[in-house]
Each structure stands twice: as structure tokens, then as C-alpha cells.
Amino acid sequence: MRIYRNTPLSQCTYYRIGGNADVLLEIVNASDLQEAISYAGINRIEDVLPLGLGSNLLISDKGFRGAVFRFINPQASSIEQDGSLIKAFASVSLDDLICALFEQEFVGLEWAGGLPSTVGGAVRGNVGAFGGDISHVFEKAEVYLLENSTWVKKTCDSNDMQFGYRTTSIKQQKNAIVANAWFRLKRGSSEDLERAKKEYEDHIAYRHAHHPMEYPSCGSVFKNIVVKEEVEKILEVWPDVEKLSIQKWHNKVAMGYVLSRLGFSGFQIGGAQVSTKHANYILNVDNAKFDDVISIIDKIKEKFSKTFGFSPELELEIVY
């Protein structure tokens, strides 16, 4: 485990925004994580932020007063197989896991092609795309929770995780760290593998074609609209969207479409700008500050709420 002090978090996130962390602990493997847990306990640090690739995170310019547990993708394999059960350490990148599973003839995660996440982040946030999400293949996870100033290790099954759309009970808890995750997958035939690899590659190509990659961002800022009653409220205002919802969006409503139609494409405050390519992305186009992004989010919430009668939910995680 490596220890860094007064480290700029703008260098650790996709957004390239954020002040300094009091302490940053680099974690590559299970041994490092044990050291980090011990370090936090000995130094009585009770504010811990888990950080993987930092792809869906906006951190205040004031930084983080506590310890950042930064999970670094390991050089050696941290993936184990027991029949159809696959175990991966939290720091393994989701893409590396998928490719390793293809080599062992497993399918089931190909929908996540190109998703920028570690295993820990994917489980914590129940990441998903193209109609799939982690909950569909999740078996259990080993997590550390800070309870009454003491770190406790627990094993959580699907019921404990309380999976929701892009969220879990772990994401909702302060000082909750995913250490390992187990996934239940199936071996595929040669045809299954060929189909899965094509889906994986197609999804990567789709991201490059439809998502703005030229500037730093956090990915999708808002969650798509999935609650039936909320979808219906949008359809009351825009009845022509129903066909798109059914045929293209898996009965959801895509926030990129909504924000574009509300006129936010290209909207800019300071160095932050809503993408003209995908309006659910707020880009760092010119050394954006934390407050620039927050101001755009507030403007979007205000207009969205006035139009549809409810407020959109953030997918982006904000650390104030």
C-alpha cells in the first residue's frame, strides 16, 4: 500500500475536478486493503471515500477531509473461478474481467463493454447499460463497514445489497467499501461466445460514436427515467415519446433526449458545458470548477421540474 498526503483529486477522476485529499491510500490487492483498513483505524479516520476509476464522481474544489481508498487495477490477475462462480477483487477493471472471462468461455457481462468501472465500483453502483446490470449476475460481495468507529467485514447477498436502478444499499451508506465480488455466470458455446464478443465490441463502438470522449466528464449526470409513474408524467407532456420509450429505451425515457429537447445542448456556465453530442453529459471544456457543474445541474433540475412536475435523480455521485 502506498500513502500520499495532500494529493490533488483532480488527477484521480475523469472529470479532472476536485481539491486535495488529506490522505490517499493506493490499493492494488487484498493485502493493501487490509493495510488501509488498519491505517484508518489506527489513525481514527472516520471519513473514507472509495475511489476506483473515478468515472462517475464530482469532487468539491475544497477536497476531501479524510482518507481516499484508491483502487488501482492490479498487474497480476485477481480473478478466481470455482465452477460457474467467478470471484474478482474490487480493483479489477470491469473490462479486464470481461475479457478474462471470454478467455475462459464465460458469457453474461458483455453488455458492459466499454463501461469505465472497477469491479468494486460496478457492484457499489449497480452499473448497467443496454438493458443489463450487475444485479443480474451478482451472487455476493465481501464488504467493510465502519460501525461505531470499528471496521466490520460482512458478506452481502442480493437481498442485503437492495439493488435499485444504478444504486445499492452500499452506495447509500457512508464508509462502505466493497472488497471482493462473486458473479454467477455460464459457459457459452462457440456461438454464444461469438455473439457475446460481438455485443461487447458493438457497445464499445456505440460509446465512441454517440458519447463525447473529447473532453473530461463524469459520464451520465442524471439517471434515465425508469419509474412508471414518472415515465407517464413525461408522456403526458410529450406523448410522441412513447414509441421511443418502448422500442429504443427498454420502457425508460433517456435523459440525454430529454435534456436536448429542453434546450440544454451546448448550455455553458464557466468552464462546464452540456455536450451537444449527448446532453446528459456535462463536459469540462475549459478548466471547469466544481461550482460550474453544480450550477448547470441546478438549472437543469429547475427547468425539468417545471416541465414535468418532478425532479430528475442524479446518477453522478457528488462529494461536497
Task: Tell me about this structure.
- With 320 residues, the chain is α+β, with helices and mostly antiparallel strands.
- The protein folds into three domains: 2-71, Uridine Diphospho-n-acetylenolpyruvylglucosamine Reductase, domain 2 (2-Layer Sandwich); 79-206, Uridine Diphospho-n-acetylenolpyruvylglucosamine Reductase, domain 3; 215-319, UDP-N-acetylenolpyruvoylglucosamine reductase, C-terminal domain (Uridine Diphospho-n-acetylenolpyruvylglucosamine Reductase, domain 1, Alpha-Beta Complex), CATH 3.90.78.10.
- 32% of the residues lie in helices and 26% in strands.
- It has ten helices and 18 strands.
- The strands form six sheets. It has a five-stranded antiparallel sheet with strand order 6-7-13-11-12, with helices on both faces.
- The chain is globular, with a radius of gyration of 20 Å.
- The model has no long low-confidence stretch (mean pLDDT 96).
Q: Brief description of this entry?
A:
The chain has 320 residues and is α+β, with helices and mostly antiparallel strands. It folds into three domains: 2-71, Uridine Diphospho-n-acetylenolpyruvylglucosamine Reductase, domain 2 (2-Layer Sandwich); 79-206, Uridine Diphospho-n-acetylenolpyruvylglucosamine Reductase, domain 3; 215-319, Alpha-Beta Complex (Uridine Diphospho-n-acetylenolpyruvylglucosamine Reductase, domain 1). The protein has ten helices and 18 strands.
What is the element layout, followed by pairings?
Layout: E1 2-8, E2 20-27, H1 30-42, E3 48-51, E4 57-59, E5 64-71, E6 79-82, E7 85-89, H2 94-103, E8 106-107, H3 119-125, E9 128-129, E10 132-133, E11 138-147, E12 150-156, H4 158-161, H5 169-172, E13 176-184, E14 186-187, H6 190-210, H7 228-237, H8 242-247, H9 255-261, E15 268-269, E16 272-274, E17 282-284, H10 290-308, E18 317-319
Parallel strand pairs: 2-5, 3-5, 4-18
Antiparallel strand pairs: 1-2, 6-7, 7-13, 8-14, 9-10, 11-12, 11-13, 15-16, 16-17
